[in-house]
Specification:
The complex is a heterodimer of chains A (334) and B (134).
Chain A lengths: L25 E6 L2 E6 L3 E8 L2 E7 L4 E9 L6 H9 L2 H4 L3 E4 L14 E8 L6 E10 L4 E10 L6 H9 L9 E6 L2 E6 L3 E8 L2 E8 L2 E8 L2 H4 L5 H10 L8 E7 L2 E7 L6 H10 L7 E9 L4 E9 L5 H9 L9
Chain B lengths: L1 H4 L7 H4 L3 E4 L4 E4 L6 E6 L7 H11 L6 E5 L2 H9 L6 H12 L3 H17 L3 E4 L6
Antiparallel strand pairs in B: 1-5, 2-3, 3-4
Helix pairs in contact in B: 5-6
The chains are: A alpha+beta (334), B alpha+beta (134).
Chain lengths: 334, 134
């Protein structure tokens, strides 16, 4: 090895991601009603969602590419004011030049039922970068939001990418099911369930969605072969549940889930369950009283999935089976 | 003095991911069938011990002190070790790892950076800015 090779740093790399042959170029990001198509090298960088509003940020390998901020709105919506509020402080600090009403490609169909206004941002300090923004209000879900995407001509991203990403943006589920997809976890959940929590750690991704009296948690682990090298599914499940506080004693049985080996678990029936449920309703206690779950190892995608349903019905096997059938486990999503 | 108080400049990610990890050519390694788990022999650096003490230690232990330590890599580690041939950039290796083990890009990146950091701390891996071969 030449000693010179180890001195100094190489030039910045602006080439497109070096995807191996056969690798998909695009994927979905979907969360809490939001759904859009994004390049495969983008991932969730930040997320903050609550009933009072929220935001998420999508980053590529090097920098932030897309930002969405939303909040429920009941009164009159003025898109220009929303843009001014969103850009306040940023324009002066980063020496940005806004162009309100500028053309943003590809959004006409996606935003046809909404009141919206567009803008672009440029800066003399970085002429190769351009931000494309839309402020809109959706009458169906009463959400006002601002979405902003940044392109960099050095990295070969431009209007075509903006048209594809912003053109695919949906801010609420069209039917009874809503898609959730992030970090390779993809499933459909009933549209009435809202985001109630998430966890993104290395190898483990979990999302929790809930409504009154019902709570669904989905976890996925990658590198299942390594997790199960010196263990089996039962040991894996027991170890996972033992780390959660206040887990009731659960009955565990072997089952097949989407034709994969798996385990089913549920909290045991108790005496006077019907009366207890009625009493909880009367007292407006919405914390689910029973847990039912499925754990399975998908050999096609080399992942482990855990689906837990908290409800007021003991041993709710039918509901959990239906939810499990909507997890896209065999499809390898990056 | 003022130069000593300067904070180290953060390295641009675009530059750092363009580096090419390369195995220490001095490291002796083997894998069972050419594609299995990798085992690396790490030479132990010892302080020079005076002859009589070394003789006494050998007599007491009834064997010579080991001159190297074996490190067995797991599946993913073995894959990364083989891929670090000085020709691929960090960025290429991240995507390669993601494709091989069906990982999300971020999962692959975190795992790879941590593993490469551990190997470079043990002088088993270095980074080149131009292609090189080992």
């Amino acid at each position: 090895m030449a000693p010179d090779a180890l001195v100094g740093l190489p030039e910045p790399d602006f080439s497109p991601p070096p995807l191996p042959p056969g690798f998909p170029r695009w994927k979905h990001f979907a969360w809490d009603g939001w759904d859009l198509e994004i390049p495969v090298d983008w991932d969730l960088g930040a997320l903050d969602a609550s009933p009072k509003g929220g935001q998420f940020r999508l980053d590529d390998e090097f920098e932030t590419r897309l930002m969405v901020k939303w909040q429920p709105l009941r009164g009159r919506f003025d898109p220009l004011k929303a843009i001014e509020r969103y850009l306040r402080g940023r324009v002066k600090k980063a020496r940005l030049t806004p162009d309100l009403g500028a053309s943003v490609p590809g959004i006409r169909d996606a935003f046809k039922d909404m009141a919206y206004e567009t803008y672009t941002l440029t800066s003399p300090d970085s002429p190769h970068r351009k931000s494309w923004g839309v402020s809109a209000y959706c009458r169906n879900c009463s959400r006002a939001f601002v979405v902003e995407m940044t392109t960099d001509s050095r990295a070969g991203t431009g209007e075509r990418q903006v048209a594809r990403v912003l053109g695919s943006l949906r801010d609420h589920a069209a039917g009874k099911l809503a898609r959730w997809e992030a970090y390779g976890l993809s499933l459909d959940l009933p549209a009435e369930l809202r985001a109630a929590g998430s966890r993104f750690t290395q190898g483990l991704v979990s999302l929790t969605a809930a409504e009154r009296g019902r709570r669904v948690e989905v976890c996925r682990w990658t590198l299942a072969g390594i997790h199960l090298a010196n263990s089996d599914l039962r040991k894996f499940l027991t170890a996972y549940l033992s780390r959660i506080r206040n887990t009731p004693r659960l009955k565990i049985e072997e089952v097949a889930v989407q034709s994969h080996a798996g385990l089913q678990f549920h909290s045991p029936r108790r005496m006077l369950d019907g009366a207890r449920t009625g009493l909880r309703k009367k007292l407006a206690i919405y914390t689910p009283a029973h847990q039912t779950g499925l754990l399975w190892h998908c050999t096609s995608s080399n992942r482990i999935f855990l689906l837990t349903l908290g409800s007021n019905q003991a041993n709710d096997i039918g509901a959990i089976r239906l939810l499990a059938s909507r997890v896209r486990c065999c499809k390898v999503i990056y | 003095m003022s130069a000593m108080r300067l904070k180290p400049q953060p390295i641009d990610r675009r530059r750092s991911l363009a580096l090419k990890p390369v195995r220490n050519p001095e490291a002796v390694w083997e894998s069972a069938d050419g594609a299995g788990l990798v085992t690396i022999d790490i030479p132990l650096q010892r302080r020079p011990v005076p002859g009589p003490f070394l003789w006494l230690a050998t007599k007491l232990a009834r064997k010579a002190p080991p001159s190297s330590r074996r490190m067995e890599l797991d599946q993913v580690g073995s894959f990364v070790w083989r891929a670090a041939d000085g020709r691929r950039t960090m960025r290429e290796m991240i995507w390669l790892l993601a494709a091989e083990y069906r990982l999300n890009r971020k999962d692959a990146e975190v795992a790879l950076l941590e593993f490469v950091r551990q190997l470079s701390a043990r002088n088993l891996m270095a980074f080149a800015n131009t292609p090189c071969s080992v």
